[in-house]
Amino acid sequence: MCFQRLNHFPLFLTFFLLFHHATPNPIKTVVVMVMENRSFDHMLGWMKRLNPAINGVTGSESNPLSVTDPNSKRFFFKDQAHYVDPDPGHSFQAIREQIFGSNDTSANPPPMNGFAQQAFSMDNTSHMSENVMNGFLPDLLPVYKTLVSEFAVFDRWFASVPASTQPNRLFVHSATSGGATSNVAAKLAAGYPQQTIFDSVYDAGLDFGIYYQNIPATLFYRNLRKLKYVLKFHSYDLSFKLHAKEGKLPSYTVMEQRYMDTKLIPANDDHPSHDVYQGQMFVKEVYETLRASPQWNQTLFLITYDEHGGFYDHVPTPARGVPSPDGIVGPEPFNFTFNRLGVRVPTIAISPWIQKGTVVHGPNGSPTPTSEYEHSSISATVKKLFNLPSFLTNRDAWAGTFEGIVQTRTEPRTNCPEKLPTPVKIREGGPNEDAQMSEFQQELIQLAAVLKGDNILTSFPGKDAIPHSQINKPGA
Q: Given Cys at both, which of 4, 81, 257, 276 links 269, Cβ 3.0 to 4.6 Å?
């Protein structure tokens, strides 16, 4: 199998593009899927065995149980990841310890040596330390194994902020979290007011659509609650396959997963303790639907993860040269200035215009010497692909863009697989209906209540207070 490194365009390729009339922008439909809480090494690190060009793992990577003890037990990174429960730590404080090993954030590059230590502080049986220092064998993730081999994998794509789910999800479509470094329930329910890429696409006369399964997390953007956008939200089960078959997918299409486990339909967002089998099945279904669509030859499908979820990654997070999106400083006690990124996350780009086996290592000094791929790269790339008039913030103006991966061919590939392998279930048994809800799930329930008109901002229970079984109870 032949693999390609996409480090930079060599001189001969530049002349090829100039004189052989490669299509400058064949993409008319961008499809974005943001999965939950897994690091690159945890999900894709062992893909290095399939393609040595990928900056993955070898098994020599390790973390001490105690960073300050030179004789500490060490946890080496293994290939035995399986079903993960409970959820590892991924708060702003936890991530700081994972990256730097302590509260001192002066190291550059960060040592990435505090994952096992931080996990042990949550579970002193070493069970969680072993979980966070483990990755999936490629055969357990056959959908990703095929996509990585057939299309493009980014091995230097970072979360936008070293924080939890919602700050990073806010960055995905707006290139800022509005100053959020944690999941602030009241602000999420009220909605964050910043301009989004949805607004930019709409104002340019293009269309966007959000295909949701439970509750659309994109409604944490206040602007998307406007009446003019109400018809942009579609039921995934009722509309996605139909729209794809008819060639009617919008220019900017967002897929939203099932974030909730229920007795009949399990979650498919990959958030622990959800089975990654369900996530693989969801990706498979979306890919095969797009592959069969008449829009396939003009589509770019991007899969990424909001943040690393507490799982180990060996690549140091960029800690210098990262611009604040908008000058907003995070709340006390950290007063974060948004001058460093989060941990590396899995990211895969899919299109018939992408050369088979592409590995994208980084933007290599473009548009600035310190630019990196991170979630703001999505809005930055969409701006370029659709010729939108302006960036959203300083951050997406700085972020690397990846339109180049669909501009190296004169015609689309015809050998892209029509079907992907079917994965095998990993979790034994069904969803745990009595498990405590995650913070994200609680916020989605609160969002649904607020949109319905119920004011529960002052009475909503704290974190880890609501069991899954409450979802189906009257009034919940």
A: 257
Give the separation between CA 167 and CA 32, rounded to whole angstroms.
17
Q: How far is CA 390 from the centre of its chain?
A: 24
pLDDT band at 463 (very low <50, low <70, confident <90, very high): very low
Alpha helices in 317-438 (DSSP H): 376-385, 394-398
Residue 454: predicted pLDDT: 58
Rounded to whole angstroms, the Cα distance separating 37 from 305 reads 6
Token output for 105: 């954030």
- Alpha carbon distance 57, 227 (integer Å): 48
Tokens of 162: 């070293």
Closest C-alpha among 206, 203, 229, 204 to residue 218: 229
Crossing angle (nearest 10°) for helices 115-122 and 92-100: 140
Give the integer Cα–Cα distance in Å for 163 and 165: 7
**What letter represents residue 288's amino acid?**
E
Q: What are phi and psi of 278, to 5 degrees?
A: -65, -40
Chain segment 27-86, per-residue pLDDT in tens: 999 999 999 999 999 999 999 999 999 999 999 999 999 999 999 999 999 999 999 988
Q: What is the mean pLDDT of residues 400-420?
A: 96
C-alpha span between 235 and 231 (Å, rounded): 11
Provide CB contacts within 8 A for 238, sequence distance 6+. Answer: none
Section 264-282 average pLDDT: 94
pLDDT of residue 192: 95
Q: In whole angstroms, what separates CA 95 from the centre of its chain?
A: 16
Residue 54: is it exposed, middle or buried by C-beta count within 10 angstroms (0-12/13-18/19+)?
Answer: buried
Token pair, residue 161, equals 């902020």
Residue 22's Cβ-side half-sphere holds a number of Cα atoms within 13 Å equal to 17
What is the average pLDDT value for the chain, to the nearest integer?
A: 89
CA distances in angstroms from 345 to 156, 198, 308, 313, 399, listed in the order given: 8, 23, 6, 8, 16
Asked if 444 contacts 259 with a C-beta cutoff of 8 angstroms, the reply is yes
Q: Give the residue carrying structure tokens 């109870």.
A: 473
CA distances from 94 to 193, 263, 329 (A): 28, 32, 19
Structure-block tokens of residue 299: 């589509």
326/318 Cα distance (integer angstroms): 19
Residues pairing with 31 in the sheet: 253, 301
d(CA 90, CA 96): 9
Question: Does residue 36 contact residue 283 with C-beta atoms inside 8 Å?
Answer: no
Q: Determine contact, residues 62/76, Cβ cutoff 8 Å.
A: yes
Query: What's the pTM?
Result: 0.89
Q: What is the DSSP string of 261-307?
A: --SSS---S--TTS-HHHHHHHHHHHHHHHHTSTTGGGEEEEEEES-
